[in-house]
Amino acid sequence: MPRKVTYTVGRAGGPTREITVDVHDLDVDPWGADAELRVVGTDVPRLEASQKTTGAARYTYDVNRPNMALCRLLRSPHAHATVRSVDTSRAERLRGVLGVNVLVPAGGRITFAGKGVVAVCAENEETLDDALHAIDVSYDVTGGPVTTDDGRAPGAERVDPKRDNVNAGGRRGRQERGDPQAAMAAAATKVSATFRTQVQTHSALETHGCVVEHHDDGTYTVWASTQGTNAFRGSMAQTLGVPADRVRVITEHMGGGFGAKLGAIDEWDRAAAFFARDLMRPVKAMLLRRAEHQVAGCRPDSIQELSMACDGDGKITALSGTTHGTAGNGRGGAGAANTRIYRIPNLAMEQVTVSTFTGRARAFRAPGHPQGVFALEGIVDALAIAAGIDPLEFRLRNDPHPLRQVQWRLGAERMEWDRKRREFPGTGAVRRGVCCAAAVWRQKGGGDYVVNLEIRSDGSVTVKNAVQDIGTGTRTVLAVLVAEELGIAPEQVTVRIGDTQYPAGPSSGGSTTAPSIGPAAREAGHHARLRMAELLAEDWSCKPGEVRLDGVRFAGPGGKSATWGEACSLIDKSGLSVSGQRRKNYGGFSGETAGCQFAQVAVDTETGVIRVERVVAVHDAGRIVDTLTARSQVVGGVIQGISYALHEDRQLDRNLGDMVNPTFDTYRILGIGDTPRIDCLLTTLDSGFNNAGMMGLGEPVTVPTAGAVANAVSHAIGVRMTEIPITPARVLAALGGVR
Amino acid sequence: MKAFRYVRVSGGAGDVGKLVRKGATLKAGGCDLLDRMKERIAEPADVVAFGEVQNEYLRAIAATPDGLRIGALVTLAEIAASKKVAAHSAALAEAARRAASPQVRHRATLGGNLCQHTRCGYYRIATFPCWRRGADVCPVLVDGAVQDTAGVFDNGECASAHPASLPPVLGALGARVVVRARKEREERAFEALWRQPAKGVHEDVALAPGEVIVAVVLPPLPARTNVAYEAVRQRAAFDWALASCAARVTRDGGKVKAASIWLGSVAPTPRRAVAAEKALVGKAPGAAGFAAAADAAVAGASPLPGNTYKVELVKVVVRRALERAARRER
Questions:
Q1: For residues B20 and B48, is the Cβ–Cβ distance under 8 A?
Q2: Contact B3 A126 (CB under 8 A)
Q3: pLDDT tier at B22 (50, 70, 90 boundaries)?
Q4: Chain A, window 64-93: residues with a beta carbon less than 8 angstroms from a chain B beta carbon
Q5: What is the mean pLDDT of chain A?
Q6: How many interface pairs between A and B have CB atoms less than 8 angstroms apart?
Q7: Domain closes at, from A95, A126, A149
Q8: A671 interfaces chain B, CB cutoff of 8 Å
């Protein structure tokens, strides 16, 4: 029977509210806003930090099995073509070539550059490379649009011959409320602008790929760089035609994914699996960097034509517009999230996806949001300035989120908003600007995941779940939660994750990992503590309820006391095993996480070169379990956001359809030399959704950065920047220096 | 990469000429060559790696009666840190320091910097057509191409931009290039090192088969002479310059007596801006003269629709280099 618990959620010191929730009879009471905790909410170094910094951590890329063969795909350099012929005979004759599979036979149609045409398996890297170069594929090249503008042009070659490239998405692509037309007509101030964003590739340092090993007993072990060990296992088992329990997926450490490694296995994984199955040898297939850029996902571009209006009090009255974008050779998925955050009573938005002959987009850290918020915050900024209202004051008047009201003020104070808005842009060749943008995200996690916890008489504590750590600190978060419950230090906890032999864990998408699995770890820790209390009660001849955890010691009646080690010595040889489960979400404090960022930039108005000098990032993610790894997430999100605002750009030749800059010297990513001082202010609170009050942080932290940077550049140079990346060429064009 | 014969020479080999067998490709740091071999843009049958040779001439930075001699195997990191280089020209040290990343600078050599090929994506990716690799037309010149980092001078048939950081400074310093040819060392004028692009020709340096760059000699600078280097990079570190300029200015009284102005990253080879030099000589070293020189530097530019901004960048780097050269005492 669930029990009713009434407690305070929100931020200690306000805003807060009281909620009453049904707590599962096996679950622990929620902490609440004013809980005083020992380890949770402190700086705890990543458990695997030394492994990662010394190179000892083993990533999928590092896995090399005895007798392992290598697999790679020959890829089409053409975006739209028909395969005329495939001749693999020369490759098959090469010594050391183990297998050749034609994926697209003669007559097959290619709809993006990078599509795998032939899969090859060979003894070693040299033979594999020779074999790929010994395959002759001839194509009838048709050509076709690879940009959103070209894709929607009248008469453009169709990606799907039966359907127009332009897909308005019907009712799902439209948002309407109120009467925006009338509101626009009645507005005191109105602005319109067209915002453009580029295609960004995920660019994780570890490329996609796996190692598949087929064992004599018909089972498989697969080391995979995946954001979902269980999803990967299901998909791999289906491909191989075996039950899922015959496939074990291991993701010990992972070199980033940002959404591109979610869900089903890929073409190259499939090729490796078939070779491994048929050859009875381990086979490794990891993408090269160029293929990673071409085929392994991207953030869709966008063209957002927006109009926004406000009344005489600076209250937003209406937003209307149309968004176009391409998510590659598919039909949908290029929507830009540009309607949330602010109170907008009258709204009319249409989201249109344009099919092009390009590699398919994939979920990318807050899908739709960095581009949508860049445009939304750009038009909000323009409207504030047109209305003669300070852009921060304008946001405060229109932002309904109680916590973001606090965050805007915190961030502004840290950035010295008033002084800098007054003193900038200054004079001379280098001008400075400062501005801001809001973050939004609404995932709180869920599921019914189980975490197993084992304690041995030597005091060792082991936590087990199949969940993978994609670099965010999942291991450490689980250790901290268990340590809090048991009165021990996080580094005393061994976390075994990233292996499907343990209970299923969530996929890491939508910032849901920590809030989906953390509460189960806390509950497991709670059960372990109760069991320890029972053992001590027996030893001390008291009731279990009389044993309490006093800091890092167990205490009982009559001054009885035991350290963790002393208590564990009571455990018998078989050890102590408990588990915790993720229970249903409670009502919560607010459905949306809040955040905002302020950016300060320096723009060389003669060269157009921009340096971001400082970012203040204010975020909530419910209760912050480990403030150190949380700040690391914020810093990473800000870096990726600046990179998106200023540099990253998948450049395709519009005639030839392939990517011209698929290397890291030409696909620019923000480096350490350009990384500014980043102040992270974490407004921790109890989210009221689960026993730990947690929410996710990975995505919201990259949502506002590009908008804040672009608005700061606009402040610096006095021209609204409506297109990212803001390159020197675009700054000079905006300043009228050229063209 | 395609299989090749590999010879690694280390120890105290005295005569570098002996290392170059007929048709062999020399590898020093390998920063550029290995990338091209992996992509099969370069498919040498023989590679001689001589980066570890303990040859004093190749490795030294030496003050000689003829000037400062820098061996071809001296790394960019060594140039950036050298007191002798700094004493001769802080601009050269600065150009070395601002190139690439710490890892690359510790591997990349002076000779390799001079010999590196264009970073044009079309040239570097084998599946793109490229005039330098034998295609009939340079695809960068066609509307719809990616043109932002392409050159804006001498781009009638090839839009490549020479990427190296050191050549503009070496040009402005009046460097002479020491080439080992026919068993003898000969010195060549810096300008004579470069050739205009030709269909099917990958290299930008005009070296005959068997010729090797073994050093660069920087002659002593005349009195009242200053040199400055300016570059525009989109990222502060680890980025190719979008445009760069090195300027040498010799003053006499209130006038510019002599000037040497070189541009980088805007043409298929490092480019001497002769018109800019002429516009400056005889004028007062001030804003008007620098502006006139900057305007003259872009005379004859032929920007593409996608990189007109680079013309503006050239003017800015020329003006800024001249301003710094006018201020700096060496």
A1: yes
A2: yes
A3: low
A4: 77
A5: 96
A6: 101
A7: A149
A8: yes
Instruction: Provide DSSP, A322-343.
Output: EEEE--SSSSS------S-SS-
Give the CATH number for residue A418.
3.30.365.10
CB of A144 within 8 Å of a chain B CB? The answer is no
Spatial separation of the C-alpha atoms in residues A255 and A203, rounded to whole Å? 10
Complete domains list, chain B, with CATH: 56-218 (3.30.465.10), 225-327 (3.30.390.50)
In a domain, A273, yes or no: no
Beta bridge partners of A73: A119
Query: Which residue would you say has higher pLDDT here, A590 or B328?
Result: A590
Name the 3-class secondary structure at A602: strand
Question: Contact B148/A729, CB-based, under 8 Å?
Answer: yes
Distance CA B161, CA B142 (A): 16
Backbone angles phi, psi at A687, to 5 degrees: -70, -20
Whichever domain contains A138, its CATH number is 3.90.1170.50
Q: What is the C-alpha to C-alpha distance for residues A203 and A298, in angstroms, rounded to an integer?
A: 9
The answer, yes or no, to whether residue B94 has pLDDT greater than 70, is yes
Handedness of CA A579, A585, A587, A589 (dihedral sign): positive
Place of tokens 């001849």: A541
Return the structure tokens found at A567. Answer: 């208590």
User: Can you give the pTM of this predicted structure?
Assistant: 0.97
- Taking contacts as CB-CB distances below 8 angstroms, the residues of chain B near A607 are 232, 313, 316
Place of tokens 């790894």: A629
Contacts of A694 (CB under 8 A, 6+ apart): A445, A514, A515, A518, A519, A621, A622, A623, A625, A687
**Preceding omega of A728 cis (within 30 degrees of 0):** no
Q: Which amino acid, one-letter code, is at A177? A: R
Estimate to the nearest angstrom the gap between the alpha carbon of A441 and the chain centroid: 11
Cβ–Cβ of B146/A652 closer than 8 Å?
Answer: yes
- Cβ atoms of residues A33 and A248 within 8 Å: no
The H-or-E segment that residue A439 falls in is strand A430-441
Task: Give dist(CA A667, CA B60) in Å, integer.
Answer: 36
In a domain, A4, yes or no: no
Of the partner residues A665, A672, A739, the one whose CB lies closest to the CB of residue B240: A665
**Using one digit for the tens of pLDDT, what is the confidence trace for A598-631?**
999 999 999 999 999 999 999 999 999 999 999 9
Interatomic CA distance for residues A739 and B307, integer angstroms: 10
The verdict on a CB contact (< 8 Å) between A656 and B316 is no
Instruction: Enumerate residues 6+ apart whose C-beta is below 8 A from B107.
Output: B29, B30, B31, B75
Structural domain of A125? 67-149
Q: In whole angstroms, what is the distance from residue A118 CA to residue A140 CA?
A: 17
Please state, in angstroms and as integers, the Cα–Cα distance from residue B67 to each residue in A357, B73, B78, B109, B110, following that order.
Answer: 58, 18, 18, 20, 17
Is position A415 within any domain? Answer: yes
User: Is B283 within 8 Å of B255 (Cβ atoms)?
Assistant: yes
A728: Cα separation from own chain's centroid: 29
The answer to whether B309 contacts A732, with C-beta atoms less than 8 Å apart, is yes
Residue whose token pair is 């405060």: A396
State how far the Cα of A545 lies from the Cα of A568, in Å rounded to an integer. Answer: 18
Distance, in Å, from the CA atom of A33 to the CA atom of A47, rounded to the nearest integer, reads 27
Q: What is the mean pLDDT of residues A106-120?
A: 98
- Which residue stretches of A334-490 are H helix? 369-386, 391-398, 402-415, 417-423, 474-486
Residue A480, both tokens = 């901290």
| Domain stops at, among A124, A149, A174 | A149
Pairing of the two strands B176-181 and A220-224? unpaired
Asked whether residue A620 is domain-assigned, the answer is: yes
Considering only the beta carbons, identify the residue of B121, B235, B238 that sits closest to A661. Answer: B121
Q: How many domains does chain A have?
A: 2
